[in-house]
Design brief:
199 residues, alpha+beta, six-stranded antiparallel beta sheet, four-stranded antiparallel beta sheet, 30% helix, 38% strand
Length: 199
Amino acid sequence: TVNVKGLCEKEVKADKVIWPVVYRVMANDIQSVYDQTDRNNAEIISFLKAGGIEDVEITVSVPEISDKYATEYGSNDRPYRYIAKNVVTVCTGNVDAVLSLMSKQSELMKKGLVIVGNDWENPVEFKYEGLNDIKPQMIEEATRNAREAAEKFAKDSDSRLGKIRTANQGTFTIENRDSNTPYIKKVRVVTSVTYYLKN
């Protein structure tokens, strides 16, 4: 017998994105915090809808408010007593619209919104959920590559390739192609096939 592996790799574009738009509000009285939060939410939703995002794809979270005077190590000489963090999350299959909106975030900053960059707590996530559509084609290609390797081995050893003894599809992996374009994914599968050899 001969055991060979066949590889198939494919680059695909993400078909789903989760984009948290994170901003902060600072004020000295709690009512101002809520008023600013309401205004900012309305501005962000308007910005998103103008860029092609639907209402059902937008979720607004409850703001996280911290009172700097109430914290144990807080100092009362800070310029603002309350700091609120809020997140407006977009979850959509319209990846192109989100990429376009992400490049225009400065429009929100020009309106006075303190937008927080992509942080570890609220990362932008690009996903690929169409794996079932490309699985058969990729398995076929990986198996074909394995057979080509087996045929070369058989030829080099003056043998003929027989039937398949065992075959293992392997696990599909989906990773970012690189750190700069997380919306382009690399799908990879390795099949392992054992063939009988005939003299």
